[in-house]
Amino acid sequence: MQSSIYRLALVGFGAVGRGVAEILAHHHRRLVERYGADVRIVAICTRRWGAYDAAGLDAASVLRAAASGDTAGLPGACRWSATEMIGSVAADVLVEASPTDMTTGEPAMSHLRAAIARGMHVITANKGPVALHLAELRRLAGEQGVTLGFEATVMSGTPALRLGWSDLAGCEIQEVRGIVNGTTNYILTRMERGMDYGDALAEAQRLGYAETDPAGDVEGHDAAGKAAILANVLMDAALVPAEVEREGITGVTRDMVAAAAAASERWKLIARVWRDGRTVRAAVRPMRLALDHPLAGVSGATNALTITTDLLGDVTLIGPGAGSLATGYAIVADLLALHRKGS
Amino acid sequence: MQSSIYRLALVGFGAVGRGVAEILAHHHRRLVERYGADVRIVAICTRRWGAYDAAGLDAASVLRAAASGDTAGLPGACRWSATEMIGSVAADVLVEASPTDMTTGEPAMSHLRAAIARGMHVITANKGPVALHLAELRRLAGEQGVTLGFEATVMSGTPALRLGWSDLAGCEIQEVRGIVNGTTNYILTRMERGMDYGDALAEAQRLGYAETDPAGDVEGHDAAGKAAILANVLMDAALVPAEVEREGITGVTRDMVAAAAAASERWKLIARVWRDGRTVRAAVRPMRLALDHPLAGVSGATNALTITTDLLGDVTLIGPGAGSLATGYAIVADLLALHRKGS
User: Fold this and answer.
1) Which strand ranges, in their side-by-side order, compose the sheet holding A302-309?
2) Which positions 257-316 of B are in contact with A (Cβ < 8 Å)?
3) Residues B30-58: pLDDT tens digits?
4) Contact B302, B292 (CB under 8 A)
């Protein structure tokens, strides 16, 4: 099989970038031999360091250097901004994983626009641009004939978006309900075992489940952003996160959790998107679910989505919603989808 | 959007054919307007009647005629064999839904070979050919440049196979476990409510859940065929159904079900496919699962599959496993996938 080479430029090297590098360090050969996709990281920019090698950086070396903080010895070591990197690099795909801003989508949106304008495919793990500017991104990508990937933005590498827009094509999606924030689900699961909200939150933070800003999780902002993405990608809506009705889990007490348990129910933070006449609405709020509800059994940091369709009824997908390897895999899955389209 | 026309020839007009016709009767316009796929049934053959219209049969009329048994008034009403139909019809896609034979794969296999030789795409809802002859079918389809679809063979329209081989591409699938037979799951669920095995079976038959031969369900033959398909499609094995270790649910008593319940467990008929060194093995057998296992909560005629991968861990898909509309949708999903490839 003739391989196609995909040269990646990475904005950010946190959990997502590390996940991509881990997969390439261990499974580069599998991607080449099985799929004919020769994927290489050629450029990285972070706030503190950068690297560049037109022939491809060695993923294992990059991981070691990033872990030790000793990145000065990497090929093409530099400090460049994302804008500089995107404007100068010879790469096929931009992987955007800068911190999410749900109000403006910046700086990610500017990075994506610049990369598309240069004819690069773009894959974003950053929810902001997809929650806020999906229609514009699709239009720009269409004009340049490049592909836009964003599977990572909901349920990390668990193919929730692909399931809805591609596998279930031909169905009308009537409603989507999901547990799309692992941190809050972990906290609620621990509270069922008798923990206080505060202790459970502290434990989630200690385990690294909480995102950069814990309020983003517990007040439902993260889930609201994902609800907007679900509405826009799966139900052709044009909702922004601020239009999602939102209530977090900060008001859920240990007593409420115990009362639900006594009634064979569980509190879950549910993101829900549904049709209301000709409009699509979305809400995030804690709900009590009966124990035999498919989402009730989803515990810990696992995520799940139930998609209600006219032809199949309910289809439920359960899988990891975070984690470096799982999110890195989302990027690889978008790459392979792009590769299938092109080959 | 320019539409592509897909002229279908149907072998059989049972649950699958009716499902396809229902979808076309109600949603033909959606497929044209949203996807640019103008899907028409042009030919049908069953053991008792046939019909043919090069411009497309009216799906609603066909459904009414088939329901009333008054098919003589359909356009091109005839009695032709599948072989005659395939050999003479001007169609783009053969939809094969004759009764399954897990030992020989016939007569479906001959139908598929003949259609591929004539340059038709083939979509089979019949498990026999896929469980027994996948490699040959893939080779023949490849030689003729046509597409082979078989999503309907496991979990009906719930996109279980597509999830594994397409959405999870890039992962190594290490194990697959599933509830892939709705009849037995329904029976076990009823037994949990205190019913005897015999009464639960009779009820399942009354509700139309049991397949043509109930032994095929309760002795695990149907699940074993699906296990072989899962092994071959998702794990590149070459297993035939006879090589699947098999134990049905006929030995599960009400006492055993009660004993499991007392231990917070449930009996489920589990199809399991796993790697054992360099070989892939498969087994179907009743297993006791803890209530918090993702498959334990799957009740009634619903199906589910947990796919264990190296990069994502467990991904679970839950959805309908049977039903006319759901299986008809599987055919439509294969058509849309073929349409995406071509467009």
Assistant:
1) A245-246, A279-290, A265-276, A173-179, A302-309, A313-320, B313-320, B302-309, B173-179, B265-276, B279-290, B245-246
2) 292, 294, 296-297, 299, 311-316
3) 999 999 999 999 999 999 999 999 999 99
4) no
Starting at the earlier edge strand, list the strands of the sheet with A37-45: A50-52, A37-45, A4-11, A93-96, A121-124, A148-149
DSSP state of B78: B
Beta strands A265-276; A173-179: pairing state:
antiparallel
**Cα A202 to Cα A209, A215, B267, distances in angstroms:** 10, 13, 38
Answer whether B297 sits within 8 Å of A294, measured CB to CB.
yes
Residue of B nearest to A159 (CA): B167
Residue B312: both structure tokens together: 């994502």
List, in order, residues 6 or more apart from A141 with CB less than 8 Å away: A116, A122, A147, A148
Q: Please give, rounded to a whole number of angstroms, the shortest distance from the CA of B103 to a CA of chain A.
A: 30
Closest by Cα among A295, A300, A269 to A193: A300
- Whole-Å CA distances, B259 to B254, B292, B300: 9, 17, 20
CA dist A108 and A105 (Å) reads: 6
Rounded CA-CA distance B271/A121 in Å is: 40
DSSP-assigned beta bridge partners for residue B78: B50
In B40-107, alpha helices (H):
59-68, 82-88
Q: What is the pLDDT of residue A1?
A: 62
CB contact at 8 A, B130 and B97: no
Domains of chain A (ranges; CATH) run 4-157+324-342 (3.40.50.720), 160-320 (3.30.360.10)
| Degrees, nearest 5: CA angle B80-B81-B85 | 75
Averaged pLDDT in 10-residue chunks for chain A of 343 residues: 91 96 97 97 97 98 97 96 97 96 95 98 97 97 98 97 96 97 94 92 84 83 97 96 97 94 95 96 97 87 96 97 95 96 72
Told to judge if B268 belongs to the known catalytic residues of this protein, a careful annotator would answer: no
The pTM (predicted TM-score) of the whole model is 0.96
Q: Are B303 and B182 in contact (CB under 8 A)?
A: yes
- Contact check, Cβ <8 Å, B316/A318: yes
Distance CA B149, CA B128 (A): 14
Residue in A with minimal Cα distance to B342 = A341
